[in-house]
Amino acid sequence: MKATILSTLLGLAAIQFTVSAQAAPPNGLPENARVELSGTLQVFIREDLPAQTAAYEYYLERGQGKAPVRLIFNGSHPATLRSGVGIAVRGMVREGNVEVTAANIEEGGDASGVMAESTQAFTLDARSALVVIVNASDESHTSEDLGNMDSYYFGSANSMADMYDRISFGQLAINGIVVGPITVSETAQEVCADPFAYASSWLDQAEGAFGIDRNNYRHRIFAVPRGLSGGSCGWTGYANVGCGTACSAFNRWSHDINTTSHEFGHNLGLAHAGVGSNQYADMSSFMGYSTTSGVRALDSAHHWQLGWFADIDAATTQRIQGSGSYDIAPLREISPAGNAPSIYRIDVASGDPYFLSARVPEGYDTGLATLNSAALNGVNIHRYAGSGYDLTDRVAQLDNGQSYTDSVNNLTITQLARAADGTVTVTVDMGEGECVPSAPGLSANPTFGTVGPGDSYDFPVTLVNNDSGFCDPRTFTLATDQGGLSATSVNLAPGAQGGSLLTLVGGASSGDTVASVSVAGESTPPVAVMLTVDATAPTISGLIGSYERKGKNHRIQLSWSGSDDSGSVSYAVLRNGAQIATTGQGSYTDSLPKSPDASYAYQVRAVDPFGNEALSATIDVATSGGDDGDGGGGGDKPCRGKKCGS
Q: Where are the residues of the annotated region Disordered (predicted)?
């Protein structure tokens, strides 16, 4: 069952790269021994973006304190492998690596509780990122890069974080910090050969030097010197494909926004943007090869994969179901021009769907004028599988009067005009009166939810009829292996969407429940969601109080320590058993009315967002009444005037 769930969540396309075997750093495995290991798979892509070369590499993480083991495949690798998958392997140790075959890989092995990410990145998301500046023992960063590293990644403009914020229409926020530099014991040659093997020790060093906690950051980015190994390192970027609970990227070209965004794109589950047989050749997207001579954003197919639309509720209106004339607004940042859709999708009977878009040289697309000027003439036509980790293929860029024809699918796209604001008008001829049935689209958003013990959570599930416009309406049947659906039968016309709510109820203790929803009798992949029950109470300790009097003001200063696994907690302050205030801080000042000497009993109740709570011990704080004059300390008034004694 577990392997089935992982396969549902992943679905990685089988894109083959050459994998070179080399001696691994020490990992404690006996040479030439047959071993059986389990742990968490990490898939990396090692690539030289200017040279347009790439290779996949695979590591098995076996738990804290154990060096990762590189896996060398004899033959092709399993198509579903993604970072974060739990696997068990059997193989032979050769020069510290473990040689395996696809037949000796079993998904669903012990992954220490790591759940793999979906094949699509999550929209309306925030990602935490830690950038560690790393100097090799014999190679250091330039002063220019050291002085600008924060702006390269997190600056308010012309940075990786700003790029993603703007091109996602504000749906992806990257928040993080830059620390370093640290000087590691590895040479430049060792860093080039096997950076992931040393990543854990580099994080140990950064944590000790700067007081950070790696567990607060999902993305761990290592900025290594751009001149590493004399510039002959063999890669400009080295990144996880996909991201489980944590993922890594190693960047030599931190100064180049195209490179940093490209490697972060692999973390999000994006494959390359190509043209024909060249997987890097589409220069309309930073998922093509990198150059420092200009910037550009993403192609329309990758926008579709990530769910980044200017109006995320209008996705289904962007499908072309029949012949006609269509306006395409430019794929601008933040908001498109006019009211036309900025991305159209055309499903065909044979091969991948088509994606149509228009571009303008603004914002992070200013570099298109030099990098790919044809993208600015009119409609850009891409093909892509529609979901999951797969290459996008740019098949045409049209100008006015030009056409693209797919004779296999009887499809012709002709550009009629391009307006001054960049809006492009095209005609689409899909043949006469033919019904082209397609598997319906199925999605859930969000795919993760957290509740308290016994509480329920509703996951919205969306179903789209992808049949061509000449087809009759159809009734689809939804099914789930957990929980209940608000509607199991949905009747939809071609191009229409409908929905249902999947309700899951949490148990009495902490834990995860994975449920899937499928469409009966269809080839549509099921969608998986996960409900987490948080039954862990927050902690609170160290409550102390002190009395302070200034003039007529009587105050008691309270402070305490508290924490919660959810990262969010509020505190209710109680005086003599009655609640007097609520705060999100670890301190509170209680201003008292004028009173004689008294003693007050205080407690603090910590409450997390899921209703779990903890109550502190009671402390008693005594006050001093006395006189409320200016003396501030109680006791007799000072004597003033002629009547004072000598």
A: 621-646
